[in-house]
Amino acid sequence: MRKENIVLIGMPWSGKSTIGVLLAKALKRKFLDTDLLIQSNTGKSLQEIINTEGVENFRKIEEELILSLRLKNYVVSTGGSVIYSDKAMSHLRSIGWVVYLRCSYETILQRAQFVELRGLVKTKSDQTLLELYNERCPLYESYAEITITCDGLKHEEIVNKITSLI
Asked: How many domains does the chain have?
């Protein structure tokens, strides 16, 4: 499959869903949010899945969903934890340009609301947001084909940067 999609990765609160919708409109593409698709398929919120089935089962559900995607002309917003699966990321790279929306920890912290309801996939139950950020950022960097530093930029500026690079 050729790279016919744009896949957004990054921390929770980095703006993947918001930017994804705007980017899809700008490029006249369809939009898919994998977190919303998981919720739709399971009938549960992400946090409910994590609470009732555990982090490992959630990651398995997420990986299986990603591996099942057969898309053309989409902008895809992924869950922040997708980078824990090499298989999922390899599949995403095979079908689309992987764009990392990089935000500083300070920006993420300013935007972080309702953390306990967010459905954060942590590798340790007592992991802080800073520890999660420091763990994930190198993974996002390693999978990204394009990195956009979003701090201080308006949504439209981020969309314009992405469209000029794709």
From this structure: 1
3-state SS, residue 127: coil
Tell me the CATH number at 86: 3.40.50.300
* 76 touches 9 (CB < 8 A): no
Identify any residues that bridge with 83 across adjacent strands, giving them in sequence order: none
Q: The domain containing residue 101 runs over which residues?
A: 5-165
- Residue by residue, pLDDT tens for the chain (166 residues) are 457 999 999 999 999 999 999 999 999 999 999 999 999 999 999 889 988 999 899 999 999 999 999 999 999 999 989 999 999 999 999 999 999 999 999 999 888 875 554 556 666 777 888 999 999 999 999 999 999 999 999 999 999 999 998 8
* Secondary structure string (H, E, C) spanning the chain: CCCCEEEEECCCCCCHHHHHHHHHHHHCCEEEEHHHHHHHHHCCCHHHHHHHHHHHHHHHHHHHHHHHCCCCCEEEECCHHHHHCHHHHHHHHHHEEEEEEECCHHHHHHHCCCHHHCCCCCCCCCCCHHHHHHHHHHHHHHHCCEEEECCCCCHHHHHHHHHHHC
